[in-house]
Amino acid sequence: MLEVINILRCQKLVQSPFCKLVSRYFHKEPIPVLWKKPKIGWTKLNFDGSCKGISGKASIGGVVRNHNADFLLGYAESIGQANSTIAELTALRRGLELVLENDWKDIWLEGDTKLVEIIMKKRKVRCMEVQEHISHINSILLPEFKNCFVSHIYREGNRAADKFAQMGHQLVEPKIWRDVPPDEVLAIVLEDAQGKIVLRRKG
After folding, report:
1. Mean pLDDT by 10 residues, the chain (203 residues)
2. What are the residue ranges spanned by the domains of the chain?
3. Which of 45, 104, 166, 185 has the smallest C-beta neighbourhood within 10 Å, fewest atoms?
């Protein structure tokens, strides 16, 4: 009889809200993430910003590739004191400027920040500095393109841009790589081109 009571108690414990929450957490399926090539004739800009916690030192980076996933250019730069939002916007602005300089007019913009949704929907934000960046992007830069598509991707699919942003912390002057990626990013660029899937664990 004691064994039956203990079994019933265990069943009630497993069915409690806390246990359900724990069970759901440990059994979440990982999300497959991969970088996708743009359509023929399009170029794709992936961008990212990086901010070092307490110091507040920020850097930016990005990478531009074509429909074959060929590396066209990458950029990295230290931008001094800034928060993560400003770093992300600065990374996007710099990338757009470089794309325009190269006369690529059909562009796919992709980042792992929710700012892409704000930019796409032209939402207003309270911070004046952030709004200034967004307004410049929407009113000055984006109208210069023939076609523009904006999307969000998880960080696992934005690894190349993230790596460039991390490299920016080590730079004294802004740097641009053309046609051939630096060794630090080469493996990631090749994996993206091959369609490697990276699993994102749900948290």
Report:
1. 40 46 59 96 98 88 98 98 94 97 97 82 83 91 94 96 98 97 98 96 73
2. 2-30, 32-200
3. 166
Question: In whole angstroms, what is the distance from residue 57 CA to residue 51 CA?
Answer: 6
In a 3-state reduction of DSSP, which class is residue 78? strand
Residue ranges in the chain assigned as alpha helix (H): 2-14, 17-26, 84-101, 115-120, 128-136, 159-168, 183-193
Overall pTM surpassing 0.90 (yes/no): no
Using alpha carbons only, give the angle 85, 87, 93 rounded to the nearest 5 degrees: 105
Q: Given this model, what pLDDT does residue 82 score?
A: 94
* Alpha carbon separation from 5 to 9, 12, 15, 57, 93 (Å, rounded): 6, 11, 15, 60, 66
SS3 114: coil
Say if CB 97 and CB 62 are below 8 A apart: no
C-beta atoms surrounding 193 within 10 Å: 15
The SS3 call for residue 101 is helix
